[in-house]
Design a protein that fits this description.
single chain, 2 domains, six-stranded parallel beta sheet, about 50% helix, about 10% strand
Length: about 220
């Protein structure tokens, strides 16, 4: 006798009502319960924190708040909720940004909708719902990273790619002016990035920020 697929509750977030309907119908045919729908990113965050679904299917481009920022806010408050981002174009850098924001997956809307239920169940089971192309991008980034872990960034992090660049240089012992020169930025811009890094990591000093980066890498089994 075959096992019954695990029950799954989801929220669908997309500003296009036709797309929401197509996704909802596809999921419901696969015995996945759609408990709510959102038409913008802010609404997606509010509904996710209220209903606490297993998975949120999140469009990237939405009004008021984009899908990556909505994902970041959900992950920071309810990390157990899986978020799978959908986009109209297969942009690997965008996908990496989504994963760093806390997404459990990143798929193109061009993927056959019939494969979406399996991807969501995989995300709930702890698998990454990503394309083979994005997986290869991750492999290439890993190969390019230094052996000491510098530049290897935890997948689930609230920091943006630029903020990680600043934090990596901070871990190397560079000061504000040296970081600005290395990244070809103004010192004021670097200070602004550092302020955001401190706030997101809930720290008050450079030493604390470096230690927080080391802890995040240790939690994901990355070298420090």
């Amino acid at each position: 006798m075959e096992d019954t697929p695990q029950s799954l509750r989801t929220i669908v977030a997309d500003d296009d009502p036709l797309v929401r309907r197509l996704i909802r119908d596809t999921l419901q045919r696969a015995d996945i319960t759609v408990i709510a729908e959102a038409s913008n990113g802010r609404e997606a965050v509010e509904l996710a924190l209220y209903y606490k679904p297993d998975v949120v299917v999140m469009d990237y481009m939405m009004p008021e708040m984009d899908g990556i920022e909505a994902t970041r806010r959900i992950f920071m408050q309810e990390p157990e909720i899986r978020v799978v981002l959908l986009t109209g174009a297969g942009d690997e850098d965008l996908g990496l940004s989504g994963l760093r924001a806390g997404a459990a997956g990143y798929l193109s809307k061009e993927v056959e909708l019939g494969a979406l239920p399996r991807a969501l169940r995989g995300a709930l089971a702890g698998e990454a719902a990503i394309s083979r192309q994005l997986a290869m991008t991750l492999v290439q980034r890993l190969r390019q990273s230094r052996g000491d872990g510098h530049g290897m960034r935890p997948v689930r992090s609230a920091l943006t790619a630029r903020e990680w660049e600043v934090l990596d240089l901070l871990c190397d012992g560079l000061g504000t002016e040296a970081i600005a020169k290395r990244l070809v930025l103004s010192t004021e811009t670097v200070r602004s990035h550092l302020k955001h890094v401190y706030r997101k990591l809930d720290v008050n000093s450079r030493d604390d920020a470096v230690r927080a980066a080391q802890r995040m890498r240790e939690l994901e089994g990355l070298p420090v």
